Amino acid sequence: MSLGLSLLDFAAVGGVDFAWLEHLVERATGWGGLVIIWIYSFLIAFALPGVSEVVLAAPLNLGLSGAATTTLIIFVSAFGKAAGSVFAFHIGQEAKESGRIIGFLRRSRFDIVEWSERQTVKIAQKWGYAGLALALCVPGFPDTISIYAFSVLEEDYVKFALATFVGSAGRLVLWLAGAEAVLSVF
């Protein structure tokens, strides 16, 4: 199944070429493809710009039903993103001390940090870790900003990992539901 998505559309930043990763995900077949999905999801949580929905385009052939394969992709991706988020969480804890990551984001070409900080602080103050899960459920929005913003504000590794797992899985389910609704119209 091809969704017409290109990882290069989502993963190229600062002149760094992630074409190798695009080729891996686009060719991820069999059970080893799940490892590639996990690695990509791990990296998208803290290092790669873009969105995580591209894992749904991996042409896995696991000998399972389509629904079982999709469920496994969602689980593996959410687990990978939760692991990457814990890594980002640790970096965020360190960023409280140095402020390097926030400075980098402030210098980025998008003025998304100021907007994201305001929204994230509001969500974190009102909803805590449930707010993080909800923020990560928004299809198409880069995860890295929410993850780093929450990592600086919060302190519990286990709750953080659970929130990112739930939010990541919820995001993929919502994306699939939206794609199915759109395709059913045509």
UniProtKB/TrEMBL annotation:
Presence of the UniProt keyword Ribonucleoprotein in the record: no
Membrane keyword on record: yes
InterPro entries: VTT_dom
Domain annotation VTT: ranges: 70-176
A family per Pfam: VTT_dom
Transmembrane parts of this sequence: 28-48, 60-80, 127-150, 157-177
Protein name: SNARE associated Golgi protein
